[in-house]
């Protein structure tokens, strides 16, 4: 029962934050959307900020799961780059409200309370990517670079398109640029001689 109320409040919070932003959102509006009493809300969350932090972690977990699913079964370098970029683009488009919350609405100043949990989730994502990447670096299929640089080269360009889409500045589905983004990532992340063999 408590989990159901919590899930309802998180879903309602996402809807309200997406519609009016974090600052303008009220506990009353979230409660009304979730059809939850004042007592129910404060039994589960101490404040709007606490709900926002819990929602951030929940959305982050869904995003990371979508990304890591792209590495199962374990792909080669070319397939992995392709699948990871497409997984990012697909999640942003098919989970647009969650993506807007994660990349556009969430703010670090109210996320301090969840920072350790966020770091732990980010570490699990990094470990999952590294388990796939490290053997490919060792075999010369991927260029050696830090994990942070790898992810920035892999997802960074796609994220620029996604942010424009999420903010409404560009209504074009960012997935139409997938092939170009993948080709660019291959040039940035793989030795030239490995790319030219295809």
TrEMBL record:
<feature type="DNA-binding region" description="H-T-H motif">
    <location>
        <begin position="26"/>
        <end position="45"/>
    </location>
</feature>
<dbReference type="Pfam" id="PF00440">
    <property type="entry name" value="TetR_N"/>
</dbReference>
<protein>
    <submittedName>
        <fullName>Transcriptional regulator</fullName>
    </submittedName>
</protein>
<feature type="domain" description="HTH tetR-type">
    <location>
        <begin position="3"/>
        <end position="63"/>
    </location>
</feature>
<dbReference type="GO" id="GO:0003700">
    <property type="term" value="F:DNA-binding transcription factor activity"/>
</dbReference>
<keyword id="KW-0238">DNA-binding</keyword>
<dbReference type="InterPro" id="IPR009057">
    <property type="entry name" value="Homeodomain-like_sf"/>
</dbReference>
<dbReference type="InterPro" id="IPR001647">
    <property type="entry name" value="HTH_TetR"/>
</dbReference>
<dbReference type="InterPro" id="IPR050109">
    <property type="entry name" value="HTH-type_TetR-like_transc_reg"/>
</dbReference>
<dbReference type="GO" id="GO:0000976">
    <property type="term" value="F:transcription cis-regulatory region binding"/>
</dbReference>
<dbReference type="InterPro" id="IPR036271">
    <property type="entry name" value="Tet_transcr_reg_TetR-rel_C_sf"/>
</dbReference>
